[in-house]
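Hi all, posting the design record for the shared folder.

TITLE: backbone redesign
STEP: 1 of 1
STRUCTURE INPUT:
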């Protein structure tokens, strides 16, 4: 890679060992990707508190302290280096556990609870903003069109690219941390205008008008589009942010959509011509009744009508969605055999607390919690879980061993929480 003077200086260790290690990692990464240079970034979301294999962490490090853990697991360095302060504006992704609920509700290990406390303190000390969310754009991290970012989390990345018009690839734990330390990210993929044009037209014949329908559309298209960049056209009712959140999450579940265009909505797709970069795109798929049913069938695996858990808030709910849950559950009671959980980030939870929504949900017997996610609970594999999130319905079998997942409208999920029974159907 061609390095600028400041990049060479960081690589030579002139800004300390940790920055030198970060630059070394980024150079190797950039070269493997075929990037010719770096681009400056002042917007990073880290994967810093989500530990998939806590026992590996415990067994790998000697003293179980953060410099050691960060060196090994965030910088891929056997040598322990100390990070003073990061360079770029940085937020972080969810933590594996919420520290008030890790034991009795999430049923996770004490090691994870310790890691969550340690990670949070470490991040604060080095200058990372502990948003602890998969929806950074509703928690104070809102880049602008054209801004180069280094984000993690498969649902947030298409949101950044296609809804905001910012530019990010899918970064991992190591590359994002290195970007936070250096303010650099390899210039390739979605950072380059040329690579952002759409190359697959999706003729949307069944117009989505709510979160549920957008989830089905995203889930179906991601499952068939491979690495193409879809262009959705014929959308008659423009989506809201809360509709695009599950749509983006679905696109990163059945497939790997990191960029798409909705003509008239995506900042780079005012017209079909703008979305394609004036190219003649001949690849086309349709999304009609048959495709919608196929997506629904794949997301509804349970044969039982009994529901043990209702999980809402994936990606972390917006205040609009939390207010909707509170409205739907107000004055009702969650069934004694069913649990209702709603997840969001800390910032939105404060708004929900102030608005009385947290209390309304709690009065009904549900729990609104921040920091974590339904996939990070130690669920009983025989449980039946209903959700309004295509991403969670997709991942419950593989990630949690829960085969019985159900996907439905928010109203159907609330009804299931109250009655303990699933009455959802594709109408
Ligand atoms: Fe967020 Fe978990 Fe969904 S991290 S996107 S709530 S699967």
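Okay, here is what came back for every position:
SEQUENCE:
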């Amino acid at each position: 890679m061609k390095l600028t003077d400041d990049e060479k200086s960081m690589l030579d260790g002139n800004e300390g060992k940790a920055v030198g290690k970060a630059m070394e990692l980024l150079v190797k990464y950039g070269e493997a990707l075929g990037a010719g240079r770096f681009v400056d970034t002042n917007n990073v979301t880290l994967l810093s508190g989500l530990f998939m294999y806590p026992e590996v962490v415990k067994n790998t490090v000697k003293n179980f302290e953060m410099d050691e853990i960060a060196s090994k697991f965030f910088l891929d360095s056997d040598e322990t280096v100390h990070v003073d302060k990061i360079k770029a504006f940085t937020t972080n992704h969810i933590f594996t556990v919420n520290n008030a609920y890790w034991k009795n509700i999430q049923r996770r290990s004490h090691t994870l609870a310790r890691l969550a406390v340690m990670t949070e303190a470490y991040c604060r000390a080095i200058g990372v903003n502990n948003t602890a969310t998969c929806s950074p754009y509703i928690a104070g991290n809102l880049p602008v069109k054209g801004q180069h970012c280094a984000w993690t989390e498969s649902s947030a990345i298409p949101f950044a690219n296609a809804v905001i018009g910012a530019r990010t690839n899918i970064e991992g734990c190591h590359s994002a941390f290195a970007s936070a330390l250096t303010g650099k990210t390899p210039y390739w993929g979605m950072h380059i205008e040329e690579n952002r044009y759409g190359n697959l037209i999706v003729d949307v014949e069944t117009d989505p008008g709510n979160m549920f329908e957008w989830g089905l559309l995203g889930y179906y298209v991601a499952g068939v589009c491979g690495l193409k960049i879809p262009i959705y056209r014929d959308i008659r009712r423009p989506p809201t942010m809360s509709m695009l959140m599950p749509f983006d999450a679905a696109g990163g579940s059945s497939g790997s959509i990191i960029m798409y265009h909705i003509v008239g909505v995506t900042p780079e797709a005012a017209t079909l011509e703008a979305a394609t970069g004036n190219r003649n795109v001949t690849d086309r798929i349709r999304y009609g009744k048959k495709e919608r049913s196929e997506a629904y069938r794949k997301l509804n695996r349970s044969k039982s009508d009994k529901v043990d858990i209702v999980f809402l808030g994936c990606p972390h709910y917006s205040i609009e969605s939390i207010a909707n849950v509170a409205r739907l559950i107000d004055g009702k009671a969650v069934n004694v055999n069913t649990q209702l959980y709603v997840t969001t980030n800390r910032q939105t939870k404060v708004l929900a607390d102030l608005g009385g929504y947290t209390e309304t949900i709690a009065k009904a017997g549900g729990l609104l919690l921040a920091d974590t996610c339904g996939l990070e609970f130690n669920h009983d594999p025989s449980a039946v879980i209903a959700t309004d999130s295509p991403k969670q319905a997709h991942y419950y079998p593989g990630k949690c061993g829960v085969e019985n997942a159900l996907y439905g409208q928010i109203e159907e999920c609330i009804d299931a929480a109250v009655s303990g029974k699933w009455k959802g159907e594709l109408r």
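COMMENT: The radius of gyration is 22 Å.
Let me know if anyone wants the other runs.
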